[in-house]
Sequence to fold (348 residues):
Amino acid sequence: MQTRQFPAEWHAQWGVLLAWPHPDTDWADNLSDAERCYSEIISAITQYEQVLLLCHDAQHQAHIQAKLAQTACQLARIVWVQQPYNDTWARDFGFITVFANQHPLLLDFTFNAWGGKFDATLDNAVNQQLIKQPLLTHNSLETHTLVLEGGSLESDGQGTLLTTEICLLNPNRNPSLNKADIEQALKSSLGVERVLWLSQGHLEGDDTDAHIDTLARFADPQTIVYMSCDDPHDSHFAALQAMQQELQQLRQANGQAYNLIPIPLPQAIYQDGRRLPASYVNFLIINQAVLLPIYDDARTDAIAIAQMQRAFPQHLIIPIDCRALIAQNGSLHCITMQIPQEVAADAH
Fold:
């Protein structure tokens, strides 16, 4: 019988998958700002590990290389892949790695752009092309018809999955499946033993239908970092207060309550009258460091950095201004997908 395990994000990594923005995407209007943000993120990652970077073609790659050469980026740590893609949210279309009998298995779930909101034909084909890369070709890719995005899954690495009902039970994903069906599909594909469902919590401007990675994240198997709101005049107040109460009721597998670390919402950021989904918990854990999105709000940025250092005492917290990313309704975690070190261990 095959035993599966869904590693936590803090599991030792080979590197991180990203897809660089290009003018044919929705990034066209703020491409230079987005490229600056991507440059900073990739430069930070390559100080610690590798990057698997999607670009459109040779000309696009040369353009990106010139941008990154102006930073502290370790260019030798980038593996380039030239292939078409619709958009850059690698967290949601990138392969999800589990271990099957202790060997890495790459899962390719169906990506429908968060319920058919955008064209995702190219994005949904990315993993079938990536598996042909020399870095990955020795791995097995398992294809699933289940519609599922990486941003909706939060694993403690010990058999517990944290997710949201608003997203996974949304009829725009898997309309023929009920909650029990989806929970069973998660357990069989990912190897998790417990699924913890949050029914409350949502950020304005988030078109993923409340991905867990904007709301609450594991810092370790006993600790959850979450977005909080203490301002009764904020439109998020009721939902985030209700989510906080749900988190307080959750229990670890041993029956103990979780250690909860709140991080307040930053001051509201608007674009064309629309509030953007700025979240500090959309961070990325890499080897020895945590990349933390910040939003040019001196007070809450400082609180977020301090709370994250409390949550990750052994990691360096690296703040990165991600206002350019939330202009397209996502942040730092949304554009990245970690790759465990075992995935590339036997690459030739």
Observations:
- The chain has ten helices and 19 strands.
- The chain has a mean pLDDT of 95.
- The domain at 4-344 is CATH 3.75.10.10 (L-arginine/glycine Amidinotransferase; Chain A).
- Residues 31-45 form the longest helix (15 residues).
